[in-house]
Specification:
Number of helices: 5
Largest sheet: 4 strands, parallel
CATH class: Alpha Beta
Helix content: 40-55%
CATH architecture: Alpha-Beta Barrel
Shape: globular
Strand order of the largest sheet: 1-2-3-4
Radius of gyration: 15 Å
Oligomer: single chain
Length: 142
């Protein structure tokens, strides 16, 4: 995995690859309140704090019932990419959001594989992302 500025090897000397998961609207009341208030600077501060505490990557999920996830991801992902020196762990369950995130992020993010285990439809949606990943990798290699 990689951010715009550095790589994070999946095998760590400590044998633990730490992913900060505080930036998840479904699991963090503070994160949900910050994004609902459009307080993007405080959202970035949350990511930076996780990295300072030793996270090799940080999760991002802006999904919340009754709210469109994509506009919030458009706000946070570019800010995170330029402000946090860690790799992104995309935790969206929506294919269009995951694809949009891949286009916004300047590194090599991880996609939550659990989101591809929701049956045949979800698995086929995850396969749709493969060309996006290949195009991103091909651009990086040239």
């Amino acid at each position: 995995m990689a951010s715009l500025y550095s790589a994070a090897h999946l095998r760590q000397e400590t044998s633990i690859f730490a992913i900060g998961l505080q930036c998840n609207a479904n699991g963090s009341k503070k994160w949900d309140e910050l994004q609902a208030a459009n307080d993007w600077d405080s959202c970035v501060a949350m990511v930076r704090a996780q990295v300072a505490e030793g996270a090799h990557a940080f999760g991002a999920c802006t999904a919340f019932v009754g709210r469109d996830e994509l506009p919030a991801m458009w706000e946070v992902i570019p800010r995170f990419t330029c402000s946090a020196n860690a790799a992104l762990f995309n935790d969206s369950t929506e294919t269009n959001v995951t694809e949009g995130t891949l286009k916004l992020h300047g590194g090599k993010p991880m996609i939550n594989p659990m989101n591809c285990n929701e049956g045949a439809r979800a698995a086929s949606d995850c396969m749709i992302l493969a060309p996006t990943l290949r195009r991103s990798r091909d651009r990086a290699n040239h």
